[in-house]
User: What shape does this take?
Amino acid sequence: MKREVRLKINGIEYAATVPDRMLLVQFIRDVAGLKGTHIGCDTGHCGACTVLLGDVAVKSCLMLAVQANGEEITTVEGLSHEGKLSKLQESFRNNFALQCGYCTPGFLMLIQSLALRHIKLSENELKEALGGNICRCNNYPLIVRAAMEFLETQ
Amino acid sequence: MPSYTPVDFDYHSPTSIEETIELLSSKEEPVILAGGQSLMTLLKLRILRPKNVIDIGKIPSLRNVVEEEGELRIGATATHVTIASSPLIGSKCGLLSSSAKTVADVQVRNRGTIGGSVSLADPSANYLPVLAALDATIVVQGPRGTRKISSKDFFIDAYTTELAKDEVVKEVRIKYNKNMGYSFKKVVRREQEYAVVNVAAVVSLDEDGRIREAKVGVGGLSGKPIKIRELEETLVGKTAEAIESAVSSLDFKVRPISDVRATGDFRVYLARIYLKRALKEAYANARGAMV
Assistant: This one.
């Protein structure tokens, strides 16, 4: 069956009639055309598709678009403003926290969700929190450094 | 659409449990969607090919966590993060909170639910040994009314439960004595992986520091979680020194799972080690609570 799904992504309303089985990540990429949210493993392990649903980090490949109907979503495109990178993104750039960059949007959104919770995390707690995101370039030390540097300014 | 997409189905989002049961009975080949953190993968890999998906995530009353008649009542769609951070569960049943804290990863804990975990009955799920140890009750509802099933009877084998096709898990109920020390331990090859074996232990002590009551559950060893009554009985009246030998001489009386993650023998070996650690930690916690 098909139905109309309305999502507010990065403050902009998107409405489309889509099949019930369409995944949230497919809506974001193929309907809204926001290709920053990546599909990595497609089985819920890698975290590359992480977006914010409200202010909660979720894997958009493990959700149907219709489940998020009427909700507000933030994707990696929502972090920067008028071409200016956010502090988190700047911190990633300064620390060279990416190599190929494929996993980066997922890491950014997860760390953004941690910042929204306003809880002070130790480095070990941060590492535990990053467990749902995989970086196959193995750039973890620099990602952790960038995240710690950013979270300390929050 | 790209390859990993579920088969075509109709989506329903009932707003009450009665409507859910009505849909379950009237719709062809239905499946219940709670948090979807396991189900979506099963759908995408087309291991499940339902004609109808019934999303119970939009029923507010199913998310409640309350204390009634001296027991904790946790709604089926309470998420792992809710369970891990609920002050009520934390103060009444720290064992359950502590097991919820290490379910998968942050994103999955944000969406995954206890009802989903219980219904799926993955042998390596965190909650299973906890529910077995505490003799939790699973409340299910269907067209023939409500049934309260003890976890001993609810879990039958790996991915197999007492839940009928037209029933839905409504609530998990736990009776708990808060003056107990507890410990949950999970053996994983890497963080966030499925557990090879996980154990739950709860201990309460008398005034002399002897064990008054012990509750022990093991998951991942066999298809269903097991409560080890023999060990629980052996430990009564003893102190921490008895743990080592009681666990060493224990016969688990199950045929252990042997798979890519661990052989059966290795699982038994791990279960013994982690049972000892968990019991000692639970004992130490109970002592700490006495002081």
In short: The mean pLDDT of chain B is 95. Chain B has three domains: 10-55, 64-175, 181-290. The radius of gyration of chain B is 19 Å. The first helix of chain B runs from residue 17 to 26.
